[in-house]
Amino acid sequence: MEADVKAATGMANPTAAMLVIGDEILSGRTRDTNLHHLAGVLATHGIDLREARVVADDRTAIVAAVRALSATYTHVFTSGGIGPTHDDITADAIAEAFGAAIDIRDDAKAILMDFITARGVEATPERMRMARIPEGAVLIENPVSAAPGFSLGNVHVCAGVPKIFEAMVAGVMARIEHGQPVMSQSLRVERPEGEIAGPLGALAERYPALSIGSYPFSEGGVFGANIVVRGVEGAMVSAAMVELGRLFPEATR
Amino acid sequence: MEADVKAATGMANPTAAMLVIGDEILSGRTRDTNLHHLAGVLATHGIDLREARVVADDRTAIVAAVRALSATYTHVFTSGGIGPTHDDITADAIAEAFGAAIDIRDDAKAILMDFITARGVEATPERMRMARIPEGAVLIENPVSAAPGFSLGNVHVCAGVPKIFEAMVAGVMARIEHGQPVMSQSLRVERPEGEIAGPLGALAERYPALSIGSYPFSEGGVFGANIVVRGVEGAMVSAAMVELGRLFPEATR
Fold first, then answer.
1. Could you report the per-residue pLDDT of A28-69, keeping only the tens digit for each?
2. Sheet-wide strand order for B183-189
3. Spatial contact of B227 and B186, defined as CB atoms under 8 Å apart
4. Pick from A181, A186, A182, A180: nearest CA to A240
5. pLDDT of A73-122, one tens digit each?
6. Contact state of B87 with A53 under an 8 Å Cβ cutoff
7. Distance CA A219, CA A236 (A)
8. Which among B87, B128, B248 is the top mutation candidate for probing chain A, defined by the most A β-carbons within 10 Å of its own β-carbon?
9. Cβ of B56 and A196 within 8 Å?
10. Distance between CA atoms of B116 and B96, rounded to whole angstroms?
11. Does pTM top 0.90 for this prediction?
């Protein structure tokens, strides 16, 4: 109901989607952590994360997803596939999605060469692949291992290694427009959702400008739900929380 | 490159996508764990998970994603949004995606009533919402809290609470066709990807029937990569691993 509520409140926050690129997530080998990080960062900056997708290291799949998401949302953040190995095909796929030329670019090459020279390692052709940047893209700094990400149009292409992804997202956030941060408060009720659903639905109807979500859990035989109230007006969120406290006096914040 | 390799080997395993439904993942409140679980289960059953999407509790978004994924893959697994509260709209959205009627169904109602009677709780209209099942759907058993999931066409609609999601996936796996499980072995190399990329790319070219992925990490100042070799022929995977061991003798399995 989030999206409906935001439409109702006339909030015009920028929107975003994330595209996670990598076989390792879909094969069950690795657990993605970048989505959770990005979601938190965007929430505090008033950018509304509306969708996420995970695709394999498959050029056709990446191109299709980038085109669809880029056309729909204000921003798209990608993670993964920009390293030096044969399975790193993200930069070429992004260039294809935008019909942009791609080659080794002098600015990216200079950054890589500085890093490589300082560490006394070899400038292999594979390392130089990381200087392949689509025409017209703006570089995203990589304070960890030099090889830059890039923004092309509204798509921000970041590394998959979490530490580097997080640094690159911080770099992007410093230069894009933010929205109105969404305030959020939550209440833990140790009662099955079937019992709280009636009064909760009535409350949600009385506060159409808020998003009131119920997220059930079952822990050690106890059924309960975390009720989360979100909205851009802090005072309204607090008022709804006071009412919730009256409805479910045994609940804990 | 996974998908390309599979095309090259002529593997005809069933394919799958996952659709995670819920504001709580996109707002950064909750970390999804169901994707990782499903990925592992599908891998061991030879079903090729090709894509995952996360959308908000927004009917239009759910309908569009279900239609797109259902038309593209053999199976679609959804998680979330089938509880009794006002923000649980998945069942109605799935019915809409398939143009199916939806109402309280006697078989689902009987299951819920048994559970409700045994626990001595009230059969509220909100609880009865969980017996709303699209026409033509097959129920998926919920051994934890009774309220069933359902399969409609090739879409398997499961609960979001991890314990219930996992039980429902097991139920679905028992009745759908499996493929040839993919064998996987991995090697940890503590060298930057830029150094290993050349020989690794050459090896990948010599084994077109395998998927050879390189997943970089940086831990405490050490740059390295986990190299993962995957394929349906165990002997071929092992042969490639022997060659990898020769290329990177310092590596550890």
1. 988 999 999 999 999 999 999 999 999 999 999 999 999 999
2. B183-189, B222-231, B211-219
3. yes
4. A186
5. 999 999 999 999 999 999 999 999 999 999 999 999 999 999 999 988 88
6. no
7. 31
8. B87
9. no
10. 29
11. yes
Q: Do A197 and B126 touch (CB under 8 A)?
A: yes
CATH 3.30.70 fits A183-247, yes or no: yes
* The predicted structure's pLDDT at residue A11: 54
Report DSSP letters for A6-28, one per residue: HHHHT----EEEEEEE-HHHHTT
Name every chain A residue with its beta carbon within 8 A of the beta carbon of B3: 56, 58, 60-61
User: What are the domain boundaries of chain B?
Assistant: 2-173, 183-247
Q: What are phi and psi of B137, to 5 degrees?
A: -80, 150
Q: Out of B4, B60, B129, whose CB is closest to A58?
A: B4
Tokens of A62: 């990446």
Average the pLDDT over A167-171 and give the result: 98
Flag whether pLDDT at A245 surpasses 90: yes
Which pLDDT band, with edges at 50, 70 and 90, does B2 fall under? very low
Task: Evaluate whether A178 touches A45 at the Cβ level (below 8 Å).
Answer: yes
Q: Which fold has domain B2-173?
A: Molybdenum Cofactor Biosythetic Enzyme; Chain A (3.40.980)
Per-residue model confidence (pLDDT) at position B11: 54
**pLDDT over 70, % of chain B:** 96
Fold of the A11-173 domain: Molybdenum Cofactor Biosythetic Enzyme; Chain A (3.40.980)
Report pLDDT for B222.
87
Question: For B140, left (φ over 0), alpha (ψ -120 to 50), or beta?
Answer: beta
- The DSSP bridge partners found for residue B24 are none
The predicted-structure confidence for B163-218, as pLDDT tens digits, reads as follows 999 999 999 999 999 999 989 999 999 998 988 999 999 999 999 999 999 998 88
A50 and B55 within 8 Å at the Cβ level: the answer is: yes
